[in-house]
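User: Let's play a game. I give you a shape written as C-alpha cells, and you guess the letters that built it. Ready? Here's round one.
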C-alpha cells in the first residue's frame, strides 16, 4: 500500500524537486550569473522556511537554538551553503545540470567516508565497494580514450568538473557539521541557521568584489527572478521538507539511495529542455554511479 511507502515516495519526490531546482538555477545562472542566483535564492529560501517554522514551531527565527547549535550549524552553512554552493552553481553553468548532478552522486560516499574518519561511524568492505562503483560510474561518463591513445582525456570542461567536485565535497563536509551541530534540534530551524550563515558569507563576498550591480541586474530581470523563486521553492523549501519526511518514515540509507537517482532523472529533462544528445555510455555511467550509492547504503 502507498501509505506504507510514504518515506520512499517522499525520497523520490525529493529527487524530482532537486533535479528541477538544478535546471531552474542553471537557466537563471547562465543569464545573470551564479553569484546573484546564490544570493537571491538564500533570501527566498529563508523566507519560505521562516514562514513554515512560524506556523509549525511558533518561531519565526531560530531563537531557541543553543550557542552550540549556532556555532556548528553556522560552520556547516559557510561550508555547505556558501563554499559548496559557490562551486556547485558555477558548475551548473560550466558543464550543465546533468553532469553536475552526476558528479554530486559522489557526495553520499564521500560523506560516509568522512563519517567513518571523524564521527567513528561504521564503514564495511561493501561500503568501500559502493564508493568505488560510484567513482567508476562517474569516470565512464567524464573520461574517454580514443583508439591508439594511451591516456584518458576529459569529455567536459576540467574547470566545470573541478567546480562540481568541490561542490560535492562542500556538501559532504557541510553534512558532517550539520549532523554534529543539529543533534535533536529541529531540522528546519537548523536549516534556517545554515542559510543565515550562507547569506552573511555571500554578502561579505559581494562587498569584497563590489558586485552589487550584478545583483541589481538580476533583480530587474523578471524571468530570472521567477526561475530563482521556483528553484528556491523546489530546493531549500519543498525539497528539504520532503527529505525530512522521508527520513521520518524510512531509513537514512534507503532515503539517500533513492534521492541519489537524480543523475538518471535529469537525463530525459535534459533531452526535452536543452535538446542534449545523451550517449549510451553516459546513461550507463549514470546507472552505475547510482548503483554504487545503493551498494554503499543498502547492502
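Assistant: Ready! My guess for every position:
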Amino acid at each position: 500500500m502507498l501509505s506504507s511507502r510514504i518515506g520512499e515516495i517522499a525520497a523520490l519526490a525529493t529527487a524530482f524537486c532537486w533535479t528541477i531546482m538544478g535546471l531552474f538555477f542553471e537557466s537563471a545562472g547562465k543569464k545573470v550569473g551564479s553569484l546573484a542566483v546564490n544570493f537571491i535564492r538564500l533570501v527566498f529560501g529563508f523566507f519560505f522556511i521562516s514562514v513554515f517554522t512560524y506556523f509549525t514551531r511558533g518561531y519565526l527565527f531560530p531563537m531557541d537554538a543553543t550557542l552550540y547549535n549556532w556555532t556548528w550549524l553556522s560552520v556547516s552553512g559557510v561550508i555547505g551553503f556558501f563554499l559548496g554552493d559557490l562551486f556547485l552553481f558555477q558548475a551548473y553553468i560550466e558543464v550543465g545540470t546533468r553532469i553536475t548532478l552526476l558528479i554530486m552522486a559522489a557526495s553520499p560516499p564521500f560523506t560516509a567516508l568522512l563519517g567513518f574518519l571523524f564521527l567513528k561511524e561504521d564503514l564495511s568492505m561493501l561500503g568501500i565497494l559502493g564508493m568505488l562503483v560510484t567513482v567508476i560510474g562517474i569516470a565512464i561518463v567524464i573520461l574517454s580514450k580514443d583508439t591508439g591513445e594511451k591516456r584518458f582525456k576529459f569529455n567536459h570542461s576540467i574547470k566545470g568538473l573541478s567546480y562540481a567536485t568541490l561542490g560535492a565535497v562542500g556538501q559532504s563536509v557541510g553534512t558532517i557539521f550539520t549532523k554534529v551541530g543539529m543533534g535533536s534540534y529541529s531540522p528546519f530551524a537548523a536549516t534556517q541557521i545554515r542559510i543565515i550563515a550562507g547569506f552573511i558569507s555571500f554578502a561579505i563576498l559581494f562587498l569584497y568584489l563590489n558586485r552589487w550591480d550584478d545583483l541589481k541586474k538580476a533583480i530587474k530581470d523578471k524571468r530570472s527572478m521567477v526561475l530563482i523563486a521556483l528553484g528556491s521553492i523546489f530546493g531549500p523549501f519543498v525539497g528539504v521538507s520532503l527529505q525530512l519526511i522521508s527520513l521520518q518514515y524510512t531509513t537514512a540509507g534507503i532515503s539517500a539511495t533513492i534521492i541519489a537517482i537524480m543523475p538518471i532523472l535529469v537525463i530525459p529533462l535534459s533531452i526535452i529542455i536543452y535538446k542534449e544528445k545523451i550517449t549510451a555510455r553516459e546513461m550507463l555511467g549514470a546507472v552505475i554511479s547510482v548503483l554504487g550509492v545503493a551498494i554503499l547504503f543498502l547492502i
